[in-house]
Design brief:
The chain has 170 residues and is α+β, with helices and mostly antiparallel strands. The chain is built from six helices and five strands; from the N terminus they run βαβααβααββα.
């Protein structure tokens, strides 16, 4: 089954308070389960943040100064979809931890190419898994006037429900 992903814009007030139709943003199923998503508005993109971290103390200071601000929105997300996303995130974090511990063990003992490659593989797989779990959730964009929030990557059924509500209230 192919699910088309959509984008939909709502007022910032509706997004922050969660006054949205009871349709899951990810699956399109009816749900009464609401989840708060925190999104950083402004600041550098993720790739630039990693680059600044790699620059050492100077990059860290720049990163602290340009972090942006946090926008918390409430979206309907089916319990099963939310729990699946949380499980994927936990597996990714466990792999990151395993990779860090493995790299520390390799560096503290006699370095081995195989064990170092395994530790790096676990770390990289964990990072990619956590990134993938975040991509399953909708992206949130705030417009320049700070009055409208756009959800990108939502299920078409959620987008249709928003549009239907807008037509009814107009």
């Amino acid at each position: 089954m192919v699910v088309l992903m959509a984008r939909v814009t709502v007022s910032a007030d509706r997004a922050v308070t969660g006054k949205l139709p009871p349709v899951c943003v990810q699956t399109g199923l009816a749900t009464d389960h609401m989840v708060e998503l925190d999104t950083r508005i402004g600041g550098p993109p993720a790739w630039a943040a990693v680059l600044l971290l790699l620059l050492g103390p100077f990059g860290w200071l720049v990163l602290i100064g340009v972090r942006g601000e946090l926008l918390a929105v409430r979206v309907p997300l089916h319990r099963d979809a939310w729990h699946a996303n949380q499980r994927i995130t936990m597996v990714g974090r466990a792999l990151i931890g395993l990779g860090v511990v493995g790299l520390a063990a390799v560096l503290m003992s006699e370095p081995s190419t195989v064990s170092g490659a395994l530790a790096c593989g676990a770390l990289l797989t964990g990072l990619l898994t956590v990134a993938a779990s975040r991509l399953l959730l909708p992206r949130v964009r705030l417009d320049a006037t700070r009055r409208w929030v756009t959800f990108v990557g939502v299920n078409a059924a959620f987008s249709d429900a928003i549009e239907t509500e807008s037509r009814i209230s107009a």
